[in-house]
Description:
By secondary structure, the protein is α+β, with helices and mostly antiparallel strands. Helix content is 39%, strand content 22%.
Amino acid sequence: xxxxxxxxxxxxxxxxxxxxxxxxxxxxxxxxxxxxxxxxxxxxxxxxxxxxxxxxxxxxxxxxxxxxxxxxxxxxxxxxxxxxxxxxxxxxxxxxxxxxxxxxxxxxxxxxxxxxxxxxxxxxxxxxxxxxxxxxxxxxxxxxxxxxxxxxxxxxxxxxxxxxxxxxxxxxxxxxxxxxxxxxxxxxxxxxxxxxxxxxxxxxxxxxxxxxxxxxxxxxxxxxxxxxxxxxxxxxxxxxxxxxxxxxxxxxxxxxxxxxxxxxxxxxxxxxxxxxxxxxxxxxxxxxxxxxxxxxxxxxxxxxxxxxxxxxxxxxxxxxxxxxxxxxxxxxxxxxxxxxxxxxxxxxxxxxxxxxxxxxxxxxxxxxxxxxxxxxxxxxxxxxxxxxxxxxxxxxxxxxxxxxxxxxxxxxxxxxxx
Length: 418
């Protein structure tokens, strides 16, 4: 067990990390274009933050959190998602005094005790964006457009954007009564978790994973039919903004999202593949969350997507990510004394921005070239007594097998391989 990663976790190995770095670079690039700046928050928070922020009747809080008491007997939880921590930071640092809106993004690891499966882990990685200080429907649409644009740039196909409005607290209060009336005659058939939710938060029953509960709520009243005029107007405006950006969408009245803080607009992006049709991004508006956590009324919206799920979807769709981190040059040497010259040359080449490596194991020239081939290096050169004495060396193109004699200087070598 000592040398095996805990269940539900994985190592991102050197031969795969370039894929993660490529996506992270694209994320940072698009966030810069949208004027969204990075925030970094602690990996653990006070448990109450998630109980109040995420909702104590959600699956996340009830079943999935990693919670423990620290040595000061404080209840601490490893973050199961990113929004609550971002809101806590927004309040703590008085960001509501900054020019609004405040736009922030995060690339973080999160933790949930779930059953591991393809694209779903107990430690997983999230990219999320939060907008604070604006209740404009234009903000909802812009926020939705960011992951949509990111996916298009990454080459994803067969994408579907589904949107819904779950109204404001006033709408939901009336809807919860209608939903309880509908469920009353079916109460005995609900799972035990949903029986507990019946009085506390019946909307959570709509999000239950049980096949029995899914069948029960299939014909339940739709929340979108119960929203107030203000929420209807907001939703209509969101649809118009999406249309003007040429972003196609469908209305799915069954989307409620799995977290309690959402209000008005909610959305999910799905990707259809040969073997699956899963959600790869979700989010919405949460106008009451900042106030719920003690920060006064600040409207907000945001989304999050799982990096593992994104990489899996790209793989399923046959999207290849080029490894741009391959070495450009391998410097071999003959004899121990020439090792010092090789090290000097490699150091000078790195100063010029060349990705280069050398032999560290005292291998034969044949073994060094075999190793260079395994690395996928494009060029190589060998340093022997003659090359160093004459200050000339043969630069070999490993793909074509062509050798070119050049001056043995870092500047000349760099000019010939760039």
